[in-house]
Amino acid sequence: MVNKRKSLPPSLTIKLGKWVWTTLWQIMMSKLAPRNNSGEYIRPASLFRETVNTQTENKYQPASKRYRLFVGLGCPWAHRTLVVRALKGLEDVISITIASPAGDKGIWVFEDEQEGCGTLPELYKLGQPGYNGRATVPVLWDEETKTIVNNESADIIVILNGEFNQFAKNPDIDLYPEQLKAKIDEWNKKIYHTVNNGVYRCGFAQSQEAYEKACRELFNTLDEIDNTLSKSRYLCGELVTLADVRLFTTLFRFDVVYYGLFKCNLRRIKDYKYLSVYLQDLYQLPGIADTCNLEAVKKDYYGNLFPLNPGGIIPLGPDMVSIEN
């Protein structure tokens, strides 16, 4: 018997499929990445901004084994805190709990319950009852008061650098020295907007104009950094600082994730004469390699950012042997 049912014309099939996918993509992206009217990604601000110090009135006093970091191995913002923890030698002072992204739920989850919580949103609500905002990593958690001290990575790395020296194995390492603070802050401001968040502004852009603007700014800054590194070992001279830490975690992920998945593909880091050597140098500092998990990075980005990679296929490459040798 001849099947007389007619299929849709190819052109109509393509138009229908494109309309359905584009509509769904826009809905999903609006939840994943808030944007302005120009389609530019706007990162929400962190809300927990307390600090740890010895001031009498501050409820968060420095102490060994009192605080815990909740981190995700794929997250560059959380990775910063692990790098500083390693450089300062705070592994026995600040404990860590690793959270993993549950792509089908859009939240971070724990392998084992923490404080009676199975997910990061539950931990946030424990720390602040009634909280219904974003639950992101990293989190600096106070195990004594059962509250969140801070969830802004830029703050946390300053805290780890300066407030636990009496317990640190490497108290003499100062990643934010007074004489370099102005220079560090200047680099941090530029690198945050155009590089750290810049790669997300490329990947999460929802218009061609927004993407191209972010991409040009990103590579203009990378070119400037490469030129700077032609004259000095690190961003602020011969000492590694928090500016280098903040840049490192983005560079480590760049060729693996941002170059392809986020369309940051004008150049790879390995194509830069000085940036490539700089990345290798930072990676080989004592303790840093142990904070880097390339497979977790690929799994988290390619496996969980469904709007950018609907098939969920995780690439085999690229080969990152160059930063290890």
Describe this structure in a few short sentences.
The protein has helices at residues 10-32, 76-88, 120-127, 153-162, 181-196, 198-203, 208-229, 242-258, 273-283, 294-304, and strands spanning 67-71, 95-102, 107-114, 117-119, 139-142, 147-150. It has 325 residues and is of the alpha+beta class.
Molecular structure report:
With 325 residues, the protein is an alpha+beta fold. It is 42% helix and 10% strand. The chain contains 10 helices and 6 strands. Helix 2 links the parallel strand 1 and strand 2. Helix 2 packs across helix 8, helix 5 packs antiparallel against helix 7 and helix 7 crosses helix 9. The model has no long low-confidence stretch (mean pLDDT 93).
List keywords for this structure.
alpha+beta; single chain; 325 residues
What's the helix and strand layout?
Blueprint: H1 10-32, E1 67-71, H2 76-88, E2 95-102, E3 107-114, E4 117-119, H3 120-127, E5 139-142, E6 147-150, H4 153-162, H5 181-196, H6 198-203, H7 208-229, H8 242-258, H9 273-283, H10 294-304
